[in-house]
């Protein structure tokens, strides 16, 4: 029953208020410590001073001797003076947490309640924050998690008008109390509105002396709730102003770091730290997509368990960070543990200081999204509001700029390297090769006038060495001029050949020589390159197992006509003799036939073994 007239409520003891105590069991839908525990009212050292409104935040107990006697009823003028004092006290505080606690303590003191609580309502009409007075932390922990707004606590959310009950257990919305919850009977509740919007509710239970809350108590609480709305609004305005100031300072620091060319990870770490400070979060992570799956991996983390979070992954589908990246908009939840759209990062799960509220915003770069900025708070803390989400989006924009600058800086550095390589290749071709070629021509012409045969042979060998040097330089020039698409598509064939030969050196005990002649990158298709690498590895493996060689050479040649590739692997080992071809040789032969090519085995004049593997190149 709910009367419109306070006097009528006073006359009817059946009038009830729908708010439990300080912590109701959401599963049971109750009110009380787990439903709504409220700690004993803060009291001054003197009942008279307390009646005058002093000692509202003093935790000392001034209860009359024996602890069971009722508090003397303050005179009306003294009570009004206490109310005015409480209102002025609320106006002095500008930090929202202190304002909220001051509201509950004042309400408990002015109404002579044993327990009090204040619940903050989120955008889903549930309690996102629950502050209690009158119950120890140990007892509150035994009762369980804070309520979400079911049972009598939800009555005020659904019907935001003052509610007064003589026995809350008789109300239809009451479902009882959870384990360890102290017994509660009388109840008084009132809504708090900020700028005509529901902010939360004040809940009071167990008026001292076994009495019921009366119309005067309701009037005092209603007046206090109006003043509380103004105080909360002022505190939020102050908080928003300070937060904007901190955000501007942070963005200025980040901008200076970006302009200074600071390392990307260092800039991302700075962004993460400042975003966590401004948004009052407990953990922040910058997640970037991984190839080829596209799943998100934590590149930078700061805050709770940051060391365990770095490198952790979240699926692109099934996480708030992935949702933000896909939709190019923020994704928010008040509890990541129960939200079906989201997954917590591994350290945020049970047993690790679980986190609840999470917000993820995309990192936009041009028309694409390159990742997400994700912030979370410990379970039980309030969720991220729209203003905080907007602030966080500003930090995400800065992170995206840092990543884009890093990408463009890398491109610029690569372009500078390519220009330098082109210059070196040009100088080698125009200067070194021409001089070597001229020297070789001079030596060749000199052989005609040299009479001693041994001298002619030595000069001829020198000319051959010059020709070999010219081939090496030409190969180097071609490597310096590797096409851009080959660099982007994966390791060039030249580099992969070098890696294969290097790996074989571990088994041979010496590094084989490697020469690559001709435009292999532009002429050898990917499928043929894989065969070349496999045959090279197999041939060197055979040399290591059977030849007992002390020297080996690998030569890959693509003639200028570019119609056929020839791979030669030569060693100075024991040779084949009459040995039956091994499995390795058969594999190389099979690869040659698969490519339409041939495999040949030869014995060089100075002994050893030479494997010649060739395959035709595609036309055009």
From TrEMBL:
Pfam families: GAF_2, HisKA_3. Its cofactor is heme; Mg(2+). GO terms for biological process: detection of hypoxia. Residues 95-242, 263-413 form the GAF domain. One of its GO terms (molecular function) is ATP binding. Residues 1-13 have a biased composition (Basic and acidic residues). Keywords: Cytoplasm, Iron, Kinase, Magnesium, Metal-binding, Phosphoprotein, Transferase, Two-component regulatory system. The keyword Iron applies. GO terms for cellular component: membrane. SMART domains: GAF. InterPro entries: GAF, GAF-like_dom_sf, HATPase_C_sf, Sensor_HK_TwoCompSys, Sig_transdc_His_kin_sub3_dim/P. Residues 1-76, 328-354 are annotated as: Disordered. This is Histidine kinase.
């Amino acid at each position: 029953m709910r009367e419109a007239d306070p006097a009528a409520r006073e006359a009817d003891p059946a009038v009830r208020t729908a708010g439990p105590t300080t912590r109701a069991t959401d599963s049971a839908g109750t009110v009380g410590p787990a439903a709504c525990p409220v700690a004993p009212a803060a009291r001054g050292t003197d009942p008279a001073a307390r009646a005058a409104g002093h000692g509202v935040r003093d935790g000392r107990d001034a209860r009359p001797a024996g602890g069971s006697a009722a508090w003397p009823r303050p005179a009306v003028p003294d009570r009004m003076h206490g109310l005015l004092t409480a209102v002025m006290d609320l106006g002095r505080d500008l930090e929202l947490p202190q304002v909220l606690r001051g509201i509950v303590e004042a309400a408990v003191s002015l109404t002579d309640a044993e327990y009090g609580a204040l619940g903050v309502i989120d955008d889903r009409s549930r309690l996102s924050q629950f502050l209690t007075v009158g119950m120890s932390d140990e007892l509150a922990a035994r009762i369980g998690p804070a309520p979400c707004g079911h049972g009598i606590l939800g009555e005020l959310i659904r019907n935001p008008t003052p509610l007064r009950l003589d026995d809350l257990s008789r109300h239809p919305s009451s479902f009882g109390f959870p384990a360890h919850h102290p017994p509660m009977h009388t109840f008084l509740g009132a809504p708090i509105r900020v700028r005509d919007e529901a902010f939360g509710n004040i809940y009071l239970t167990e008026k001292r002396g076994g009495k019921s809350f009366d119309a005067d108590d309701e009037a005092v609480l209603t007046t206090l709730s109006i003043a509380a709305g103004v105080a909360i609004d002022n505190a939020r305005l102050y908080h928003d102003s300070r937060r904007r100031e901190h955000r501007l300072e942070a963005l200025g620091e980040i901008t200076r770091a970006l302009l200074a060319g600071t390392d990307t990870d260092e800039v991302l770490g700075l962004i993460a730290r400042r975003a966590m400070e401004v948004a009052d979060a407990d953990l922040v992570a910058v997640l970037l997509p991984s190839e080829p799956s596209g799943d998100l991996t934590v590149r930078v983390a700061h805050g709770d368990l940051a060391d365990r979070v770095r490198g952790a992954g979240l699926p692109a589908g099934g996480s708030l960070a992935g949702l933000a990246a896909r939709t190019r908009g923020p994704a928010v939840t008040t509890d990541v543990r129960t939200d079906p759209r989201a997954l917590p990062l591994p350290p945020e799960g049970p047993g690790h200081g679980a986190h609840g509220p999470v917000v993820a915003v995309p990192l936009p770069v041009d028309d694409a999204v390159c990742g997400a900025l994700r912030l979370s708070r410990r379970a039980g803390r309030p969720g991220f509001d729209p203003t905080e989400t907007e602030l966080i989006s500003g930090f995400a924009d800065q992170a995206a700029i840092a990543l884009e600058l890093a990408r463009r800086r890398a491109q610029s550095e690569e372009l500078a390297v390519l220009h330098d390589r082109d210059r070196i290749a040009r100088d080698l071709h125009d200067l070194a090769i021409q001089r070597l070629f001229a020297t070789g021509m001079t030596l060749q012409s000199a052989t005609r006038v040299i009479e001693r045969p041994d001298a002619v042979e030595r000069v001829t060998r020198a000319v051959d060495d010059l020709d070999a040097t010219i081939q090496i330089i030409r190969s180097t020039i071609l490597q310096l001029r590797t096409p851009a698409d080959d660099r982007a598509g994966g390791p060039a064939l030249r580099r992969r050949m070098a890696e294969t030969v290097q790996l074989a050196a571990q088994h041979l005990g010496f590094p084989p020589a490697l020469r690559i002649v001709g435009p292999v990158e532009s002429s050898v298709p990917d499928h043929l390159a894989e065969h070349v690498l496999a045959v090279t590895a197999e041939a060197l493996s055979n040399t290591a197992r059977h030849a007992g060689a002390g020297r080996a050479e690998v030569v890959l040649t693509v003639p200028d006509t570019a119609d056929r590739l020839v791979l030669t692997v030569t060693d100075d080992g024991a040779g084949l003799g009459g040995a039956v071809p091994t499995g390795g040789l058969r594999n190389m032969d099979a690869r040659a036939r698969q490519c339409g090519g041939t495999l040949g085995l030869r014995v060089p004049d100075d002994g050893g073994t030479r494997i010649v593997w060739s395959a035709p190149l595609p036309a055009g």
